[in-house]
């Protein structure tokens, strides 16, 4: 059973989420009304997932996410936000959150999202992804070849990197590249280590920040546009 801490400054939201998740087999091991309490609870209870609001007193969700990720507790953070243009979401992803969903997400989908995060995958609300990128990631200048930060990656790792950035899960990538899912997982671990990233979501952000992918462009098109010498 997946163990979850819920962090939200609204009493009704916390209790409502607790009832919804427990009814769907999720073990809610703690409730926090602010970011500091969320960090303390995560340290004490070692949950699989912390369901984190952003706008909270004492310590906001972004700062709390940073602390939880840096503490290496094994807990993964899923941001649950009210606004689909929340200016803090991008910062939370950079801080190491494993994904984000809207509070309007149906209960069954929220429970499924928690299980996805717990299993080590990333989850990005489809309605947020494009707007998030366009709003918060500056459109970079056209690149020449592979961006410097990504040059340690092999050609196959670059392929996997782009498919991750396009939102594909490991199973989908394995089918696309006609390899085993275990092979994909190995590539993902190598990529994370080489670019000093903590989560798959940070890889998505990095792909757009470096210009490897550009909003509205198909996967792989950036490198085809300006091939390496």
Verbal overview:
- The protein has eleven helices and six strands.
- It is of the alpha/beta class.
- It folds into two domains: 3-135, Response regulator (Rossmann fold); 148-225, Arc Repressor Mutant, subunit A (Orthogonal Bundle), CATH 1.10.10.
- The chain has a six-stranded parallel β-sheet, with helices on both faces.
- It is globular.
Chart the SSEs and their pairings.
Layout: E1 3-7, H1 11-22, E2 27-32, H2 35-45, E3 49-52, H3 61-70, E4 76-81, H4 89-95, E5 99-102, H5 107-118, E6 123-124, H6 126-136, H7 155-165, H8 170-177, H9 181-194, H10 200-209, H11 221-225
Parallel strand pairs: 1-2, 1-3, 3-4, 4-5, 5-6
Helix pairs in contact: 2-3, 3-4, 7-9, 7-10, 8-9
Q: What count of domains describes the coordinates?
A: 2
State the CATH superfamily name of the largest domain.
Answer: Response regulator
Q: In percent, how helical is the residue content? A: 40-55%
Mind telling me the CATH class of the largest domain? Alpha Beta
- Give the overall form: globular
Count the helices. How many?
11
What Rg do the Cα atoms give? 18 Å
Characteristic key phrases:
six-stranded parallel sheet, disordered C terminus, Rossmann fold, Arc Repressor Mutant, subunit A, 11 helices, 229 residues, alpha/beta, 6 strands, 48% helix, single chain, globular
């Amino acid at each position: 059973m997946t163990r979850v801490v819920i962090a939200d400054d609204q009493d009704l939201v916390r209790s409502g989420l607790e009832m919804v998740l427990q009814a769907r087999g999720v073990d809610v091991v703690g409730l926090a009304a602010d970011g500091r309490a969320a960090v303390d609870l995560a340290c004490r209870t070692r949950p699989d997932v912390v369901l984190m609001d952003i706008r909270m007193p004492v310590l906001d969700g972004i700062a709390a996410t940073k602390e939880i990720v840096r503490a290496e507790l094994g807990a993964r953070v899923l941001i649950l936000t009210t606004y689909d243009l929340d200016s803090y979401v991008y910062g939370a992803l950079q801080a190491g959150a494993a994904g984000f969903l809207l509070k309007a997400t149906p209960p069954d989908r929220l429970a499924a999202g928690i299980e996805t995060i717990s299993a080590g995958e990333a989850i990005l609300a489809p309605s947020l992804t494009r707007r998030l990128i366009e709003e918060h990631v500056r459109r970079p200048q056209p690149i020449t070849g592979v961006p410097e930060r990504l040059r340690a990656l092999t050609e196959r790792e670059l392929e996997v990197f782009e498919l991750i950035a396009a939102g594909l899960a490991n199973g989908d990538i394995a089918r696309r590249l006609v390899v085993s899912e275990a092979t994909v997982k190995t590539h993902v671990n190598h990529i994370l280590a080489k670019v000093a990233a903590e989560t798959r979501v940070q890889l998505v952000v990095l792909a757009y920040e470096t210009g490897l992918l550009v909003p509205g462009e198909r996967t792989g098109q950036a490198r085809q546009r300006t091939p390496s010498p």
